[in-house]
Amino acid sequence: MVTVTLPGTILRPGEVRGEDTAAPPNIVLIMADDLGVEGLGCYGGKSYQTPNLDRLAATGMRFEHAYAQPLCANTRLQLMTGLHNHRNWISFGILDPNSRTIGHYMRDAGYESCIAGKWQLQSYDPVHYPGAEKRRGLGMHPKDAGFDRYSLFHAGETEAKGSRYADPTWLQDGELKTEVGNYGPDVWVNYIDDFIRQDHDKPFFVYYPMALPHWPMTPTPDSPSWQNVDARSVTDTSHFPDMVRYMDKCVGKVLDTLDQAGVTDNTLVLFYSDNGTDIRIQSQTGEGPVDGGKGATTDAGTHVPLIVRWPGKIPVGVTDTLVDSTDFIPTLLEASGNPLPSEHDLDGRSFFPQLIGDENPNERLWVYSFYDPRPGWDKDRFGFRVSARDQRWKLYDDGRLFDIQEDVLEEHPISPHMTSPATDAVRARLASVIEQESAKRRPTQLDVEHTADGERFLVVDPYTDPDLPGRKATRGHWTIENGTASVAHDDELYAKYNKHGPLMLYEVPYNDAHSVVDIRPDGCRTVVFTMDAQNGGHAFRIRLRTRPADGKFGPPSQIVTYGSRKPGEKAPMFVLSKRGEVPYLVDRHWNRIEASVVGDSAVVTINGETVRVEHPRIAQAKRSAKIGFSFGRFEIREFRLTAQPFFDTLDYSPK
Length: 655
What we know:
By secondary structure, the protein is α+β, with helices and mostly antiparallel strands. It folds into three domains: 2-12 and 22-365, Alkaline Phosphatase, subunit A, CATH 3.40.720; 385-438, no CATH class; 456-643, Jelly Rolls (Sandwich). It is built from eleven helices and 36 strands. Strands 1, 4, 5, 6, 7, 8, 9, 10, 11, 14, 15 and 16 form a twelve-stranded mixed sheet that branches.
C-alpha cells in the first residue's frame, strides 16, 4: 500500500513532455553508518535533530519496511553486489575481488561516478587475529570497483586506517592522505560537492557510504568541546546526538549543492542505513524508548530508514513496500533506463515501479537474511541466523516464528508445535523461502570440510591449532554438500558405537572450553556433548533431546555430570539442571547450540534460550571432548570446539 500526494504529471524515464525527451536522472545514494529508524524525526524519533532528512521525507517517499543486515559489512556487501551474503561472503570486511559491483553496473549504464566516505571492503583483519594471514589484502581495492573517482576511509590494512573523524586518514584517487585539524565527514562531503559541480558529459552517480554516526562517539566541529583540540578524540556516548545532527548536516549540504548546480529536478536521491543504532544508545520516540540493536537480527538491528526523492517523478507519501539491501542495483538500473534483463543472477528486485506509482509484477514479497559475519576480528561472538520475513511475520530456520507487529522485540516465539491455520500457512510460506534461498549458498571458510577418507571428516575449527597432538577426524558415513555435512543411521555403525551412532572426537587436552554446533535433526533422538574426565573426576555432559514438530514430548533435556574416583568406575549421574529448564531441539529445523565451561560454571544456549549451572566438580582436568548423535538423520553446518582462555572474557549476562 502506498499513501501518496500527487505533485503533478509524473514522467517515466524516456517519456516525452512536448518535444523534450526525459533524460536519465543523476543518482545520489547515501547510506548512514549505524542508524535505525528511531534516529530520524520523520520516523517518530524525538532524541535528535534531523531537519534536512525530515525535509527530504516531506518532499519524497518514505519507506516503512526497509531492512538491512545487522552489521555494516554484511549490508554493504549486499548493496555492492546485489547478492545475499550466502552467495558473496569471504569474510568480514572483504569484498570478493572478482565481484561485479554497483560501480561497474552504473558505469556500464553510461554514468560518470564517484564514491566517498567509508570503504572497509579490503583487508579487515589485524595481524594478530587467527587466520588473518589468509585474508589480509584479499578484498577489492577501490580503484577496481568501477568508480571514476574515490575518496575513502579504511581503504587498506585495519591497523593503518587512522581516524575517520578528527585528524582523518583517507585514500583519495590513489593518494593516501592525513590532515591534522580537519574532520573526515567534511572531507568526503566536500569531495562529493566538488564532483557534482563539475561539468558532466554523462549523468552522474554518487555513492556516499557515510562514516557517521558510527563509533567512536567523538565531538563534531559543531560540538562545543571541538574547540579544545585535546578533546576532539575523547569517546563518550554523550556525543551521539551531535554526530546524528552532523550526519544530517552533511546530507543537507549535498542537497544544497544539487540545488546550486541546478540539477535537483533531474536527480534521484536515496537515503538508507546499513544497520540499526549502536547498542550503547537508547533513543526516545513517540511510542517510548528504543534501545539500539546493532548486531542483532531483531528490528532494532535491521529496520532502517529509506527515503527516496525525485521531484516531479516520485509522488510524496509513505509506502509499505518491502526493500532489502540487494535491491539497489536493479532499482537504480531501471531508473536509468537500463533495467536488468528478465533473466539475471542477482537476488535484488527493483522497487522503481512502486516509486513512480506503477504496478510491479516482480514486487518483493519477502526478505531473506543469511547472517553470519564471521570470520573476522571481533565477530567470533556471532553465528548463523537465517530467516525470512514480510511486513508482519518473521520465521527463523530453527522454527521460531514471530508476529513482529505484536512482538517487535521477538520475546514470544511461536514454536512449530503451537499451530493454528493462520500461523501454519505463514510458516509454510516463509519456510519455502528459506529452503529455496538457502539452497543457493556458496560455501565459506567456516563451512564443514572433509578429509580425503570418505568415511571420516573434520569440521572447520579455525580457533585452535589443527596440529594439536591427539586431534582426530570424525568417524562415520558422511555426505558433504554445499557446506553441510549430513549422516543417516547406519545399522553397523549404530551397533559399533553402542547404539549411539557416530561421534565427533577431539582428543586434545581441554579443560575449559567453548563449543558451537548448528544441527538440523530429522528423527535424530538425542545429541550429547561430553567433556570426558581424565583419571576419574567428573565428566560434563549436555544431553539434548529432540522434540518432533508434532509437539510430543520425550525425556527432558539435561545438563549433568558423571562423577567417579578412578578410570573405569561406574559413575553416578548428578543432574544439574531442573526438569524442563534445558530446551528441546526442534526436529527438521536448524538448532544452534552454544556451550561454555569455565571453571565450575557451564552456560548453555539453545536457540537463544540460556541456561546456567554451577557445580564445584565440573572444574576437573579433561582428557577429550566429543559430540555423539543417536540414530536418525542429521545435518551439521558448523561445529567448533575452542579451548579457553579465548572465550573466557565473554559476557553471558542478559542484555
